[in-house]
């Protein structure tokens, strides 16, 4: 309505004042001014930067990503060799960061939930221990915690030649933890496929069971059936494949252990530090979520005759999750971003590798842009997933 | 709208480093206006750039910073030291945070070109070496296959290490840490079998940081050329000339036998070369845009190259480094000054 009158009258009166009195036009003008200002500032900064770089004849552009990296990386999920490109080296760093983030998020959620519930426990000692844990880890800077965990391994563990051997094949020294893994065999690949099939089958089974219960009221032992499908299928494949028992056991050879799997002190320190630190925050998120559910809900569930476990699972948690998930998302983001502290203790995360790249090529702006772009992508992906999850579990009011 | 703001924020962050210097004049004008030189030095490397407990900086790199201040202002105190990590050093110089980088920096082609630096003459010819605990019984770097190697991030060291093991077809496992203190701690705690950096740095670390210096040996192999030189950024040739010829002046003085103690006697010398260097015959100072006494002042306050070397890293210091490649060309080394005429 208002814009229509504005359109009709503006040319007739020829005045600007009427348009500016029109809230629609006014907001449009302001928005155009702000966008224009932002674009102008952005253009100024970018052109100024490029101009400065050109004047000092500093190379620009991302061409360097395809050049040979020619530096070594301590640990990698994919095969890496110094003759690979900078781009590939950066990918190694991204995967190392994701490794910490994924494992860290899972462990921090488990520990955080346990501690959060423990803090509400009626057992005095358990509740106080949980409180002490939360207060200590939340109030010590994460970088110091990383140094602490790194020092725990490198200073308190024995040298590699006197490695502790708590169980056959397992060695613990200041170089990290070595443990045996099953020797390569095609059966392991087949078991992985069986596990995936089992998970899908369990999912289908649960939907069927829920539909049946809704229709007939008959409960189905879903927990047992899920376990049977997820664990049983791979076990059948294992037995069918001849049940190989050969192990790849670490052996001390030369300077280090060879064979088996290893967890480096750097990975241990960054993972433990971040998990312990973030779990402190998650514990508080979980506690506040549970406390947000009115006690009357529990009483109502009990008066309906639901046992304790079902009260928690069917009544309290669905309402608590509504409160828990949004702050939990920001804790996941924090953990992921804090993994950049890995640089300080020598874990080759994406910042560490990008820093080496910057130093070898001198292209700091491109390198920093890569780091920022990657963190932004990872963080947005976590956000999108958690927002989807949040919507899914949101209470549908009827 | 949100996107626009995000892009703007990103652009601000990206160009902060460069925009600071955008409106300043050439480096030399900025220094004169400010009244002192900003010199980028190591955060702590014995013999090269190291603050003592009272906050006084000592070292070979540090003395050259002071020499630049003396040449320009006639006063060794007109200097501000900015300690820089290996990773901070180039952005700091590029952005104008420091005017000159005197921080055991290796002169390489890419640094000279795409990083946008100009290197003054080499002040220390170094090479990368390996240090191992004596108890390992290793006598040659060729025996290091499979070893865990501690190395500081953001240095040519990291690349030489990879090249050396590739060339010799050996496996290794790098532990790359940013701060030199943390690298030292990791090596001396036993996290690594080997510590690698420039041989001078190994000597310095062994002398200053090792709980017991005799427990560690430096292997004989030197796996790279590490010419360490002061650097300035592109864009101010006069400032580059001053830095370059200040280094040459210390070398020329040693060649002529001029020291901080006897420099006054040489003012009455018969050698025209010496008279030009010390500014008795005018011309050299004017050509550089400096006081004619610039080189005299440098030699009088800081000393010649030999004095700087012996004072900071020579055989009578904890580093116990022989002159080697750093002797004068006339003594079988590589130190050679271009002619002062």
CATH homologous superfamily (4th level) name of the domain at 92-160 and 263-393 in chain A: MetI-like
**Oligomerization status of the protein chains:** heterodimer
Strand segment count of chain A: 8
Radius of gyration of chain A: 29 Å
Describe the structure.
The complex is a heterodimer of chains A (398) and B (341). Chain A has 398 residues and is an alpha+beta fold. Among the domains of chain A are: 2-55, no CATH class; 92-160 and 263-393, Orthogonal Bundle (MetI-like fold), CATH 1.10.3720. Helices cover 69% and strands 6% of the residues of chain A. Chain A has 13 helices and 8 strands. Chain A has helices at residues 2-13, 17-21, 23-55, 86-119, 124-138, 142-156, 186-216, 222-240, 265-291, 295-303, 308-338, 350-361, 364-393, and strands spanning 164-167, 170-173, 176-179, 181-182, 247-248, 251-253, 256-258, 261-263. In chain A, the strands form 3 sheets. Chain A has a 4-stranded antiparallel beta sheet with strand order 1-2-3-8. A two-stranded antiparallel sheet of chain A has the order 4-5. Chain A is globular and about 75 Å long. Chain A starts with a helix and ends in a 5-residue tail after the last helix. The model of chain A is unreliable at 1-15 (pLDDT under 50). Chain B has 341 residues and is α/β, with parallel strands linked by helices. Chain B folds into 2 domains: 24-125 and 228-331, D-Maltodextrin-Binding Protein, domain 2, CATH 3.40.190; 130-224, Periplasmic binding protein-like II (D-Maltodextrin-Binding Protein, domain 2), CATH 3.40.190. In chain B, 40% of the residues lie in helices and 16% in strands. Chain B has helices at 2-22, 27-34, 60-73, 89-95, 109-112, 156-167, 180-189, 199-208, 237-255, 263-266, 272-278, 284-288, 294-301, 305-312, and strands spanning 37-42, 50-51, 57-58, 79-84, 100-101, 117-119, 124-126, 128-133, 147-152, 172-177, 194-198, 216-218, 226-228, 231-233. In chain B, the strands form 5 sheets. In chain B, strands 10-9-11-8-12 form a 5-stranded mixed beta sheet, sandwiched between helices. In chain B, strands 4-1-5 form a 3-stranded parallel beta sheet, sandwiched between helices. Chain B has a two-stranded antiparallel ribbon with strand order 2-3. Chain B is globular. The termini of chain B are far apart. The chains are: A alpha+beta (398), B alpha/beta (341). Chains A and B meet through helix 3, helix 12 and helix 13 of A and helix 1, helix 4, helix 6, strand 10 and helix 7 of B.
